[in-house]
Design a protein that fits this description.
32 strands; 21 helices; five-stranded mixed β-sheet; five-stranded parallel β-sheet; alpha/beta
């Protein structure tokens, strides 16, 4: 997951390949709570690992559920042993719900019914998300819920209920603010239906009916057969009792699928295949497929897969009531940037009370890109930039809202070939922690568009450390070119090759396909093996010198180094990155320091590792290596003509990295938003 302050996406052109989506957030948190309320153990497969599900799992453990394992791991089911519809006597807890509405609202209802002493809170935005209509409905029954802050909003204090004045009339709840209020009642009230029918009546229009459909489908899996009367009255029959289904599989998230459906519709390429969700999904957001087809996408699918290709181009503008796909409809707003007219998305008032005011957020950010946007209380109208020249490079503020971040990544396919900056990319952890990795795994663009920062300099100038710092700050790939000859020598010697001209073709072939990776901790990996220490040996240095003398190997390693230029960008350090390997890099830094300073740094480094060293000998060796490197016939050590020089002798690592990042920012079209 990208944890950088921002992520710059270069202009993208093509997309093709297969994406496996994470589990649905809506299904995951419903299943977790239903399993917790049931008797017995439920084995949950394909559970979403996200901020929201972690919040729910932690709360359930605080309430006494047994969860094994306690953390979610890929491919590993989670076993939930439920409470059988009752909490321990005098149960109490302080529960932090983050910004997870799918955890806060259903847990509020369930705990209000079960009784105990609970305080529920969240992040500041959660304390701005309304919950008053749910609280009002629960109070009709005798539940005792107090507001600890503003009336109608969390945080909440829940105490023991008094059901002595049970109402004769149906329990009423508004349906036009959030469907989560009705979902919460439907999940909590079966706990009170042992001897009587319980009827819930929706006041006003019920929005987001597909999410209620998910709730009803899952309730049925756990033994609760709710009668649905035209989406206005819902009756939980007397004698209802939660029963674990034993095992349950979580569908992939149809809302997350919308980004890759849109991707297939707007990008050149052979198409996108989505695995984990299909046309028969119980999730309402699968109807996003209908909207995408109306805009021109070519979509086919089966029980657990979808395949999307670009169809009509440009896309067709639409005028759509989006009540049935409120979350996925946000993706349509970005698809509208590629349409041939004005797109209007209606009946989306619920956007106002989500993780942020999404109508206002989408309006502001779409305008940054050059679109004409009109917003109303429950609609948004988008006219795309008229020509390629009208597009703008934009830094997208994401409002700690995962869907804003994911939607606007699609703007990188703009006709003007402009990059897009996504601020706070880690906010996607709410539902899809690896979204950007998944996106970039199927996207491509001409290599010259992928940004490269070159950090060259003499031995022990600190270029490797600085390159790692800069790469980590930007979320870019890292290339330590100096290690490649050592790696080649190590791999060739392990393969039994003679490090001589006679084996040069075989060594070159090996070098082109070395499975090498550099990480932010400056470790070097050969496949799954950490070879960092092995490359520091005297033998590794001697082998590197032998293979570097072979022209075929040098040529092969140029190809290998070029292959590191991958999305979203690269930081490459070495002695000839800016002069030979990446001569067109937009930023080249030549990092230097005095021989005395470099010797002192190397001495401290070796001593810290328990390696004896003489500082005078180190300085003499560095000066000799400088002379050899500057006078060699092939790629001599020297600054590129367009590089910026930085003497780090009196600077800390943090100061040097900050200066390089500042120079990089100055070269970006986003400014300092």
């Amino acid at each position: 997951m990208y944890s950088t302050t921002f992520l710059d996406l270069p202009a993208l052109t093509q997309a093709q390949g297969t994406v496996s989506l994470p589990g649905s957030k809506s299904i995951s948190n419903r299943v977790l709570l239903l399993a917790a309320l049931s008797q017995g153990t439920t084995v949950v497969h394909d559970l979403l690992d996200s901020d929201d599900t972690r919040v729910m799992l932690k709360a359930l453990q605080q309430l006494g559920c047994t969860v094994a394992p306690t953390t979610i791991a890929p491919g590993q089911p989670v076993h939930i042993t439920g409470l059988a519809g009752a909490l321990p006597a005098h149960a109490s807890a302080e529960l932090f719900m983050g910004n997870a509405g799918t955890a806060m609202r259903p847990l509020t209802a369930a705990l209000s019914v079960l009784g105990g002493d609970f305080r529920l809170s969240g992040v500041p935005r959660m304390h701005e998300r309304p919950i008053g209509d749910l609280v009002d409905a629960l109070r009709q029954l005798g539940c005792r819920i107090a507001y600890l802050g503003n009336e109608g909003f969390p945080p909440l204090h829940i105490t023991q209920p008094d059901f002595s004045q049970w109402p004769d009339s149906p329990i009423q709840v508004r349906g036009d603010v959030s469907s989560q209020f009705l979902t919460s009642l439907l999940m909590a009230l079966p706990l009170l239906a042992s001897s009587r029918d319980i009827t819930i009546e929706v006041v006003g229009e019920l929005i987001s009916k597909p999410y209620i459909h998910i709730t009803l489908e899952l309730l049925a899996r756990f033994g609760i057969a709710v009668r649905n009367e035209n989406w206005q009255r819902f009756t939980i029959p007397a004698g209802s009792r939660y029963r674990s289904p034993g095992e349950i599989h979580v569908e992939a998230d149809a809302s997350s699928a919308s980004y890759f459906i849109a991707l297939g519709a707007i990008a050149h390429g052979e198409g996108i295949t989505i695995q984990g969700v299909g046309l028969d999904s119980i999730q309402g957001d699968i109807r996003f497929v209908e909207a995408a087809r109306a805009m021109g996408a070519s979509v086919e699918g089966g029980p657990n897969w979808l395949r999307i290709r670009r169809g009509a181009w440009p896309l067709q503008a639409i005028d759509l009531d989006c009540n049935h796909i409120p979350d996925a409809a946000m993706t349509l707003a970005v698809m509208a940037l590629y349409a041939n007219g004005t797109t209007t998305l209606r009946n989306i008032a619920s956007w106002r009370v989500k993780e942020t005011d999404r109508i206002a957020a989408m309006t502001l950010e779409l305008r940054k890109l050059g679109a004409l946007v009109e917003e109303g209380a429950d609609f948004i109208r988008i006219t795309p930039p008229a020509t390629a020249a009208d597009w703008r490079a934009a830094s997208i503020h994401t409002y700690d809202d995962h869907r804003v971040a994911m939607c606007f990544s699609l703007a990188a396919f703009n006709a003007a070939g402009l990059p897009v900056r996504i601020e706070d990319p880690k906010c996607v952890a709410k539902t899809f922690p690896d979204y950007f990795e998944a996106l970039l795994s199927v996207c491509s663009t001409p290599r010259e568009r992928i940004p490269v920062i070159c950090i060259d300099g003499p031995t022990a100038s600190g270029k490797g450390t600085i390159a790692a710092e800069v790469a980590q700050a930007l979320g870019y790939h890292l290339l330590d070119s100096g290690a490649l000859y050592r790696l080649t020598g190590l791999a060739a010697s392990r393969a039994g090759m003679a490090l001589e001209a006679s084996d040069a073709p075989q060594i070159a072939a090996l070098a082109r396909t070395l499975p090498v990776r550099f990480d932010a901790e400056q470790r070097i990996w050969l496949g799954d093996e950490d070879v960092t220490l092995a490359l520091r040996s005297e033998e590794a240095g001697m082998n590197a010198s032998r293979v570097s003398a072979l022209p075929a190997v040098r040529e092969a390693l140029v190809d290998l180094q070029l292959s590191f230029q991958q999305l979203p960008g690269l930081v490459a350090d070495g002695r000839d990155m800016g002069t030979v390997i990446f001569p067109n890099a937009p930023l080249k830094v030549y990092l230097s320091a005095s021989a005395a300073c470099r010797a002192d740094r190397r001495h401290k480094q070796l001593i810290s590792k328990g390696i004896a060293a003489n500082i005078d000998a180190l300085r003499a060796d560095l000066e000799a290596r400088d002379a050899r490197d500057m006078n060699r016939s092939v790629a001599p050590l020297k600054p590129a003509e367009d590089s910026v020089l930085l003497d780090s002798s009196a600077l800390s690592i943090e100061e040097v990295a900050a200066q390089v990042l500042s120079w990089w920012q100055e070269r970006q079209p986003f400014g300092r938003d």
